Amino acid sequence: MTRTSTSRRTFLKKLAASSAVTAVGTTALGRNHFAIHRTAAPSRVVSPNDKIRIGLVGAGIIGFIDADTALKVPGIEIVAAADVYEARRIRVKEYYGAHVDTYVDYRDLLAREDIDAVLLCVPDHWHSTMSIDAMKAGKAVYCEKPMTRTVAEGLSVVEAAAETGVVFQVGSQQASSILNQKARDLIDAGAIGPVNMVQTNRGRNTSLGAWQYSIPRDASPETLDWDRFLGSAPKRPFEAIRAFRWRNYWDYGTAVAGDIFVHHFTAIHKVTNSIGPTRIQASGGLRYWKDGREVYDIIAGICDYPETENHPGFTLTLATNWVSGGGDLTMFRYVGSEGTIEVDSRGLTLRQVGITDKDEHTPEAVLAGYNSVYTWSEAQREEFAKWFMANRKGPQVAPPMKGETRYDVPDGYDARFDHFANFFHSMRSGTPVFEDAVYGHRAASPANLCNDSYRQKKIMEWDPVEMELLS
User: Are 328 and 204 in contact (CB under 8 A)?
Assistant: First the structure.
């Protein structure tokens, strides 16, 4: 990474150093949540009594999901959308109403003075450019994850967010999830002891899950603005498969790590009160979906989190398998010396067993269990048994298990709704968002560095404090 301005570099370092993980008070949802504070709270965009008018940029799958979720928050209205594909612009009007204006060029949407916020649901290679353009246009920004594709892009977005002071939130709902808040509360209370390992796993077994999204029959340069889709990506002749399955290509997407690992980093940083790892490595390959794609379908990562003032040192393992014959799987496991917390899509399970110290082993376990004593001669076994019973310091009975506790979210709970509610609350109140540009950069960069490690076959050294790649 080349940084040409010493003053700009110093500014970003100061910004990173001043960002702190902290619990915030009661939000619009009436819960204790989590935020990364920027150097100053964002400017209030609208008064609490006014409607927030949003524009959607990118009317694909997530675009419609995000817009639908945003509109569930009281006081939100969609007035415009932009997309390079004609049939999606038509669908916006069919679905949200003929009053919603549509554009091919997102800059026409940004030029409207009546739009308060934009939802950026576009291919990854457009995230940084559109985010910066929107912030400079004075719009609050909800940018889908990953925030950016490279470290340099991330620093540019961090700088723009600080300079403009507008509300900017990355769209990883893990930051607002009450499940992750509960896991953090349990860890802070010492329920599992000091965390020493975190494990995540995600599996899919469907072609759609492997990004084999359908391609419309009318896809052509006449119905899709190919040059506008490419943007800063390398120029090439029109290929519908690249436009509608863009995640399969390095020119536009960030592969599974940018799509899934970034969610995991967002959640883990919230739960453990961390700002990121220092060493990152990944391995994987294209094992099954050999359909012309460039990206892998299986990847595993290992990250080192050193001890800090906020948490003990721990190891993170991440795995995704898009060829999982066992079906869809999502799992987070936080492992400590006193127990584990397993988080799934509907709740979490706290298991408290603890480590049995050598002085607490029962006579049955030591003298007759899975131990080396039974391999000795009878005389040595008897001699050792007498010594053990005379010198042991632990209890004479096995310590009882502390048991298992389950916490489930309420029926119908949607962390994505919470994330949007928090975003709009920040617009109305001027309070910090739950995943600002600094947080987003510290989640996206480790995920993208997993890709770099995979492609370069090397360990990546990352400085999460100054947010810089070291090697």
Answer: yes
Cβ-Cβ contacts under 8 Å for 451 (sequence gap 6 or more): 254, 255, 257, 258, 282
Taking the C-alpha atoms of residue 258 and residue 156, their distance in angstroms, rounded to an integer, is 18
Are residues 439 and 260 in contact, defined by beta-carbon separation less than 8 angstroms? no
Q: Six-digit token pair at 441?
A: 């950069």
- Burial profile 314-345: b = 16 or more Cβ within 10 angstroms, e = fewer: bbbebbbbbebeeeebeebbbbbebbbbbbee
Which pLDDT score, from 0 to 100, does residue 364 have? Answer: 87
CA 146 – CA 40 distance, rounded (Å): 23
Question: Of the ranges 172-181, 263-272, 355-364, which one carries the lowest mean pLDDT score?
Answer: 355-364
Phi-psi region of 276 (alpha: psi -120 to 50; beta: other; left: phi over 0): left
Using alpha carbons, select from 351, 330, 323, 324 the residue that is nearest to residue 415.
Answer: 330
Q: Please say whether the beta carbons of 88 and 225 come within 8 A.
A: no
CA terminus-to-terminus distance, the chain: 10
CB atoms within 10 A of CB 233: 16
Q: What are phi and psi of 468, to 5 degrees?
A: -130, 145
Rounded Cα distance between 169 and 155, Å, is 15
- CB atoms near residue 471 (< 10 Å): 8
Q: What are the tens digits of pLDDT across the range 29-38?
A: 222 322 333 3
Q: What SS3 class is residue 305?
A: strand
CA angle, corner 32, sides to 30 and 37, nearest 5? Answer: 115
Summarize the chain as % helix, strand, coil (round to 5).
35, 25, 40
Compute the distance between CA of residue 148 and CA of residue 465 in angstroms, rounded to an integer: 18
- Name the residue with tokens 């359908």: 214
pTM over 0.85: yes
Query: How many CB atoms are closer than 10 A to CB 368?
Result: 13
d(CA 219, CA 216): 6
> How far is CA 362 from each of CA 211, 367, 376, 386, 395, rounded to the nearest angstrom?
53, 8, 19, 14, 8
Three-state SS at 450: helix
Q: Give the list of residues 6+ apart from residue 51 with CB closer than 8 angstroms, or none.
A: 75, 76, 77
- Residue 374 has a CB neighbour count (10 Å cut-off) of 10
Cα distances (Å, whole numbers) of residue 171 to 66, 156, 421, 435, 444: 9, 18, 12, 8, 11
Average pLDDT over residues 135-151: 98
